[in-house]
Known about the structure:
The chain is α+β, with helices and mostly antiparallel strands. The protein has three domains: 2-72, Immunoglobulin-like (Sandwich); 81-183, Immunoglobulin-like; 193-272, no CATH class. Helices cover 17% and strands 31% of the residues. The chain contains four helices and 16 strands. The chain has helices at 193-200, 207-221, 225-242, 256-261, and strands at residues 2-4, 13-17, 23-24, 28-33, 36-40, 49-56, 64-72, 81-86, 96-105, 111-112, 115-120, 126-127, 139-142, 152-153, 158-166, 179-183. The strands form five sheets. The protein has a four-stranded antiparallel β-sheet with strand order 3-2-6-7, with no helix packed on it. Strands 8-9-15-12 form a four-stranded antiparallel β-sheet, with no helix packed on it. It has a three-stranded antiparallel β-sheet with strand order 1-5-4, with no helix packed on it. Strand 2 and strand 3 (23-24) form a beta hairpin. Residues 243-274 have low confidence and may be disordered.
Amino acid sequence: MEIKGVGxxxxxxxxxxxxxxxxxxxxxxxxxxxxxxVVTLDTPAWPDGFYHLRLRKPGMESDLILEDAFEVYxxxxxxxxxxxxxxxxxxxxxxxxxFWINYENDGGTEMPAPIFQFSNNMDAPMRLSKEKPYRxxxxxxxxxxxxxxxxxxxxxxxxxxxxxxxxxxxxxxxTSILFRVKRLKMDSRLIDWDTLAADLKPDDFQDxxxxxxxxxxxxxxxxxxxxxxxxxxxxxxxxxxxxxxxQGSLVGDTMSLESYLNPKxxxxxxxLGF
Length: 274
């Protein structure tokens, strides 16, 4: 949960007073800036009802209380993702064509921002930004919302991301091109970093230098696919507080977030091939 205000510091503390007068504290609390706190709440363990938000920090004469700040409702339907593609029915060769990945949380609770894989059956080159080169093969995208926090999609939130496709003259006229989008499964399977490190190593990199780069990637991204998704969502939330121009550009490529946070990281989107 993202909490907006003024004058937040590292010594600001929050708790929540429930309908039974019980006091609940966040599992974690992160200061993003003087106007933003991000907290993690264990709401499944909380009784249903309205909660007051109570804020305190050194030097304040009394606590600040926001009554009925939010409601916990355990019977809400879980978050559910709906995905569809939109774009032109016919295209001309050697022209950039925009297709849209549309996605909606049509469930009753928020859900983590998903990772999509977009592909086509003719291996037509694609890109996520007009400033980036085209490339063949599947593209991975982080499905961020239009409003912060960028790491979660609220119930009822509808969003879309563009994918730019270039149709070559090698594809005969009248050919049907099938575009596919799917949500990648992020679970507790281990990422095979050893194999990926060998496959992704640039020819002009010394082994010692490349090992340092890959070690940095592993520390930031984690060791399982669940860790990987959590890392992307965490960084999207962090960056979204400062960079409102992220939508549809930097966040598009799943690895661009990590590259932005650490310029030493390389584009290793191909590691997500399933």
